[in-house]
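Technical note accompanying the year-one report. For the benefit of new consortium partners, we illustrate the data format agreed upon in the data management plan: each record pairs a sequence with a structure-token string. No post-processing was applied to the example shown here.
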Amino acid sequence: MLRRFLSLFLTLAAAAALTGCSAAPAEEGEGVSVVTTGFAAYDFARTLLGERGSVELLIPPGSETHSFEPTPKDIIDIQNCDLFIYTGGESEAWVDDVIESVGEGVSTVTLMDCVELLEEEAVEGMETDGEDAHEGHDHGDGEEYDEHVWTSPRNAVLICEKIAAALCEADPEGAEEYEANLRAYTDRLEELDAAFWDVVGNGVRKTIIFADRFPLLYFARAYGLEYYAAFPGCSEDAEPSAATVAFIIDKVREEDIPVVFHIELSNELMADTVCDETGAAKRQFNACHNVTRAQFDAGVTYLELMWDNVGVLKEALG
């Protein structure tokens, strides 16, 4: 469906430009225009860009990122921006059609190209959607990879380095400012990384449990954590089987787990059930894939959300 309409939308965009009615995110003279798909990339870009332009988040706050489909305006904004930043992977398969249609004139940063990728996995007790659950995650080489690369602060540093380099290329006059912003932000990410290491190093356990999807493989691997969860990170399922719920409840009891996690924008029903049965505390762990409208309007940042995670992780491992 998307491919069918792309040609029409882009033709209309070209006609609008010829009549002086460009639909670009930033008007001429307002600086660099950046378009991103996910919240983490949006926050990285606005931090590095500073006052030298504008950043647009395509996926609406509060919405499900894995089922997003771009609007005609979104496609035109991508065509007209200076830099387009997206994650890659199955949940953004639509991007390939857009990039192919808008041509090579759009500069891009793909988050999954910035880091060493981890193959997706299903741990004991986890439900999957079947053998085709992750079809499309192969990233072009036949292997299936997890998309949520930004959940590790060290990966965030690598991603920001690529974004800063792309901004320098798009706006050479601002290179010194972008590089200074990158250095300052890297320091803050390294401080966050050190805080997570401190929590893990001083914890009495190394296991975390999510009565939810688990889009935090990069985070868990970064800090040597074991985990159990109901679903993989990109699962389309929302209702766990009785067997999955029973497995999670038994695991919480067996390992005397004090905290059961859910991720942001979850219905929290399974977490409620597990906590009611075990007496564990329910806590939110932010995967930073999206935020609520209220958080977005208040200007919440990746760092703020991740520092919240430091606190709840300390409670879970203590």
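Partners are asked to follow this layout when depositing records. The CA atoms of residues 93 and 169 lie 26 Å apart.
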